[in-house]
Amino acid sequence: VQLQASGGGLVQAGGSLSLSCAASGGSLANYAIGWFRQAPGKAREGVSCISYSGTTHYADSVKGRFTTSRDNANNAGYLQLTDLKPEDTAVYYCYAKRDQTVSWGQGTLVTVSS
Question: How far apart are the C-alpha atoms of 83 and 55, rounded to whole Å?
Fold first, then answer.
């Protein structure tokens, strides 16, 4: 599958954004969908993941503030970002994983101003 991430932008601290990860070329129904982020000068960090059955996992740094979901009918995954902090500034990437197959979307930039 091919993935297209979107929804990034500039937001003030405390604000919210919704990221989308739209798939084409195949169904996401049997894939786990996840999000990583990479801030300037920092290592890539896993943010969240949702299994094909809907089980979710979050990094400690975003628990309680970010929510991941999926819509198999629309062949997409989502990441709702709330109570954003300047340290959430990063390029956010989505991925889809099934067995040993991983597909990546291009990144979408989230910038949080203080």
Answer: 23
Closest Cα partner for 66 from 18, 21, 22? Answer: 18
* Adjacent-strand bridge partners of 114: none
Residue 92, sorted as left (phi over 0), alpha (psi -120 to 50) or beta, turns out to be: beta
CB 37 within 8 A of CB 51: no
Q: Provide CB contacts within 8 A for 82, sequence distance 6+.
A: 16, 65, 66, 67
- The Cα 56–Cα 34 span in angstroms is 9
- pLDDT of 6-32, one tens digit each? 999 999 999 999 999 999 999 999 999
Question: 27 to each of 13, 22, 56, how far by Cα in Å?
Answer: 35, 10, 19
* Sheet of 2-6, strand order: 2-6, 17-24, 76-81, 66-71
